[in-house]
Write a structure and sequence with these properties.
The chain is an alpha/beta fold. The protein has eight helices and eleven strands. The strands form four sheets. It has a five-stranded parallel β-sheet with strand order 2-5-1-6-7, covered by helices on one side. It has a two-stranded antiparallel sheet with strand order 3-4. β6, α4 and β7 form a beta-alpha-beta unit. α1 crosses α5. The longest helix is centred in the C-terminal third of the chain and has 16 residues.
């Protein structure tokens, strides 16, 4: 799965930009997911779902116009692991450092404040001013040139594991910046480029694991199975756990 974050301050055009890119990618046949980060509470205090969420691990909501699953993910990796699509577009999420971003801004000053080395383009309100580049970044108006911005996302989107395993010699944030600069590629990420010895998938989405975790899972599973009648050593062991 490839990902790009659309970052910016309030009223900078993030939603319009994400909508335009998502629509274009969908028209090209891709499966697209959108994640939105909000500073306000999603579930209104004292509402029925708010009360349910205080006593349940997950709350499923069915309304006339949509269905929703309300839960609290322990971290960003756990949250994004619930998504399995070709492209994940994040609106907001300025703190996410393992994916590239598109800066949506109202002024050049905002671009400079937000440019932390992960930006691949500038869009949003400022894109309507006619400026071609800001700090070396192409300025693309998503309302007028959605195809051009989608081309860039299609070509440069990526998502690193965000586990800081250190196998490549860098943190995921450092590696992401080097990939954006062109000094590295996604293939330089050891976790993504190498074939892991142990693979765990949750609803089809691979759960990234460091080497020592893979070794722990392998030894634990083999240790338990070796005590069972009929067990034999094999090159590949498959275990599927289905939720009822």
């Amino acid at each position: 799965m490839k990902a790009v974050a659309f970052v910016g301050f309030k009223k900078s055009g993030k939603t319009t930009t994400v909508e335009a890119v998502a629509k274009t990618l969908k028209e090209r046949g891709y499966r697209v997911a959108i994640a939105k980060s909000m500073h306000a509470s999603f579930d209104r205090k004292n509402s029925d779902t708010w009360r349910f969420s205080r006593v349940a691990d997950e709350v499923v909501v069915r309304a006339e116009d949509t269905d929703a699953l309300l839960f609290r993910a322990k971290d960003i990796n756990a949250l994004l692991s619930t998504v399995s699509t070709d492209f994940l577009l994040l609106e907001g999420f300025k703190s996410v450092q393992h994916v590239p971003n598109v800066i949506c801004a109202k002024s050049e000053e905002e671009v400079r404040k937000l440019n932390d080395g992960l930006a691949i383009a500038v869009s949003g309100v400022i894109a309507g001013s006619g400026i071609g580049k800001i700090e070396g970044l192409p300025v693309i108006d998503a309302t007028r040139e959605p195809e051009r911005l989608a081309d860039l996302v299609e070509r440069r989107a990526f998502m690193l594991p965000n586990i800081d395993c250190g196998l490549c010699g860098f943190s995921c944030a450092e590696m992401a910046r080097m990939i954006v600069r062109g000094d590295k590629t996604v293939k330089d990420c050891v976790v993504l480029s190498s074939k892991p010895k142990v693979t765990v998938k949750i609803d089809g989405q691979v759960l990234p694991m460091k080497d020592w975790v893979q070794e722990l899972v392998e030894k634990t599973v083999k240790g338990m199975l070796s005590a069972m009648k009929g067990y034999r050593e094999g090159r590949k062991i498959e275990i599927v756990i289905r939720a009822e």
